[in-house]
Specification:
Elements (H helix, E strand, L loop, with lengths): L1 H19 L5 E5 L5 H9 L4 E4 L2 H10 L6 E4 L8 H7 L2 E5 L4 H8 L7 E7 L15 H9 L4 E8 L7 H21 L5 E3 L6 H6 L4 E4 L1 H4 L6
Parallel strand pairs: 1-2, 1-8, 2-3, 3-4, 4-5, 5-6, 6-7
């Protein structure tokens, strides 16, 4: 069943991209609340990259699946006191939204590992309940990340407000695409715009997402995704 869902999701991504004349985005499987066994089964089916919301929950899974050679992304809010663990547990941190995280992640990242891939999380709809930086803070954060040799600035991430009208979400994705274009002009290494989830990824793809984060469509409705 997981293999069938993965194939269907990949086909949907390809169809959405081709329909809009866009490159097919990378698929990040959102595995929060899912078991290591479920993740392993999806890995056998061909999925390589997984996203976790909570550092401690991810820690146990990553240790259990260490031999699988998977790529792990932190997509949940990072508390400063978890920076040391996150810096060496994950391959990507997609939720850097304040300056104080930058030297912490850089300082704790092991020199024996490749630089930690970093995305700046943007609060694109200015929601009080959401994490993420103000769009005006992107330039300063990006400069700080790019100055750290143990970090690799890769781009932007956002979780727009869940408007029932999908066109409202499209507007947020379009704003993110503009911010991403501006960032690529300042930093040539930037290549990742992470946006779009199970219920609206075709909109995100249409507006230029290069990575989408999908959980329910892959694993089914169980859990908190």
């Amino acid at each position: 069943m997981l293999a069938q869902r993965l194939n269907a999701t990949l086909q949907s991504l390809e169809n959405a991209a081709i329909g809009e004349g866009r490159p097919v985005p990378r698929l990040l499987a959102v595995s929060k609340t899912r078991t290591a066994m479920e993740i392993a089964a999806l890995a056998v089916a061909g999925q390589h990259a997984f996203g976790e919301n909570y550092v401690q929950e991810a820690h146990a899974k990553i240790r259990e699946l260490a031999t699988q050679n998977l790529e792990w992304h932190l997509i949940g809010h990072l508390q400063s006191n978890k920076a040391e663990l996150a810096a060496n547990l994950f391959d990507w941190v997609q939720t850097v939204d304040r300056i104080k995280l930058v030297p912490a992640l850089a300082g704790f990242r092991s020199p024996d590992r490749a630089p930690l891939n970093v995305l700046i999380q943007v609060n694109i709809d200015d929601e009080a309940s959401k994490h993420g930086c103000d769009p005006r803070a992107i330039a300063g954060l990006a400069a700080a990340i790019a100055a750290e040799p143990r970090l690799a600035l890769r781009g932007l991430m956002a979780i727009p407000a869940p408007h029932p009208e999908l066109e409202m979400r499209r507007a947020a994705y379009r704003r993110m695409a503009g911010l991403f274009a501006d960032l690529t002009m300042r930093h040539q290494q930037v290549d990742t715009l992470s946006m779009g989830m199970s219920d609206d990824f075709p909109l995100a793809v249409a507006e230029g997402a290069t990575m989408v984060r999908i959980g329910t469509a892959l694993f089914g409705p169980r859990g908190r995704e």
